[in-house]
Amino acid sequence: MELKELYQEIILDHGKNPRNKGVCSNYNFDAQAHNPLCGDKVHIYLNLDKDKKLVDISFEGEGCAISLASASILTEILKGKDLNLTKKISEEILGMIKNKEKITINSLTEDQITTISSLAGVQEFPMRVKCATMVWHTFLSALNKKN
C-alpha cells in the first residue's frame, strides 16, 4: 500500500468511526467553533488536572470526513499528555498543515506521526485546510479560556 493510500485510509477510518466523540466527564475547559462556509461544527471538552495534565478530552461535532477525522486524531494524540506538550504538538500540526513544516516532537510514536501526517494531504486542497485545522485552533482556544 502506498503512503498516500494509507493516509486516505486513516482519514476515512477516523471520519467514519471517530474516537472520543461525546462529552467527557468532569470537563473543566471547553470551546466551540463553526465554519459557516462548509458547515463544520466542533465543540471540544477538556479535563485538565491540577498538574496540568490532559486527563480526558472529547468532542462533539458534525461536518465532513476531514473535520471529524481531525477531531478524532486530536483527541487520540493529546489525551494523557501534559499541557505544554499538547500545545507544542498542536502548533506543530498547524504548521505542518498550513506551511508544510516537519513534525519534530520526539515523544510521539511512529504510529502517531503516521496518523498525524495523514492530515497533511489537505495541503493540496486549500479549501479543505480549514476543515483540518479548525479543531486544533478550537483546542488551543479552550486552553486559553478562564473557567
Main sheet specs: 3 strands, antiparallel
What is the CATH architecture annotation? Alpha-Beta Complex
The number of distinct structural domains comes to 1
Number of helices: 5
Q: What is the highest CATH level, the class?
A: Alpha Beta
C-alpha geometry: globular
Rounded Rg:
14 Å
Helical/strand content category? alpha+beta
Portion in beta strands: 15-25%
Estimate the mean pLDDT confidence: 94
Percent range of helical residues: 40-55%
Q: Number of DSSP strands?
A: 3
Widest β-sheet, arrangement of strands:
1-2-3
Alpha carbon gap, first and last residue: 46 Å
Quote the CATH topology.
Answer: Sufe protein. Chain: A
| Unreliable sequence segments | none
- H and E string: HEEEHHHH
Please write out the topology.
Layout lengths: L2 H14 L12 E7 L4 E9 L5 E9 L2 H14 L4 H17 L10 H8 L11 H16 L3
Antiparallel strand pairs: 1-2, 2-3
Helix pairs in contact: 1-2, 2-5, 3-5
Keywords for this structure?
147 residues, 3-stranded antiparallel beta sheet, alpha+beta, Sufe protein. Chain: A
Give an overview in words.
The protein is of the alpha+beta class and 147 residues long. The chain has a single domain (3-144), classed as Sufe protein. Chain: A (Alpha-Beta Complex), CATH 3.90.1010.10. Helix content is 47%, strand content 17%. It is built from five helices and three strands; from the N terminus they run αβββαααα. A three-stranded antiparallel sheet has the order 1-2-3, with helices on one face. Helix 2 (65-78) crosses helix 5 and helix 3 (83-99) packs antiparallel against helix 5. The termini are far apart. The mean pLDDT is 94.
